[in-house]
Amino acid sequence: MEHFSFTEYRPLQSMSETVRKCDSIHCREYIPCKYLQPYISCYWIMTSDIELEEPVLHRVIPDGCIDIIFDLNEHSYRKVSSIVGTMTKPIFAELKGPVNYVAIRFLPGGFLHFFNSPAHDLTDRIIPLEMISAKKGCNLTEKLILENHIYNKIKLLENYLVNLLMTNSRSDPTVKNALHNILKNKGNIRVSELSKNVNSSQRQLCRKFDKWVGVSPKAFCRIIRFQTILRMLSHNPKCNLLHIALDNGYYDQSHFIREFNSCCGLNPSEFLKNKFF
Question: Average pLDDT, whole number, for the chain?
């Protein structure tokens, strides 16, 4: 297999759009330690300087990842930690009151290295972490609330993850190779070609992707093509949309617009006008 560093995939989310809606909200991402980088994309935080008087809608778009989000608002009933499964469509989270979140974003296929729950049980769902991690999840949330400095919070997260990784160590070379193939081709690869590349039947590959990623190989390719387009638009907002569509394997511009709208909830022109980045 041609060498490809899986950690090169850095999914884009709508953090900038949310900050633009409310300049009292701050977002930032942190890179994990080297030991966890094959599995974790980043840790991210979202905080507000003040208590929000009006709710702010935060757009969450498909990126092939699973997130664990800790609500650290100690003055609220929302002392919870939640798992956001792999998304196939955009959702909106309502931010209100004091905002204080810290989260783990797993790379595609990374979640099952730490937890026993198959990824397909979480797809397009948000569930409490305690449903699969019981007391450990509750204890971690309480510890995170007591820590004031973000680097101490990250240290707590990393200790938690390292312990889980040592306990639940497992891997699937077929899935890993397939993910590398898809990312290397920026999602523009047929499932039939993919299955040949990784020496697996299409049916078996679909079962493995459901378990490890939460969606089929075809659906994951669709997400990665969308993320590739986002990256291109972020670097060059004035680029030709038709050229982008054809270069990334879409049949025509209408196919591109339809797929983009399905993943983002906006067509490409609306997306650019809304200053997403």
Answer: 89
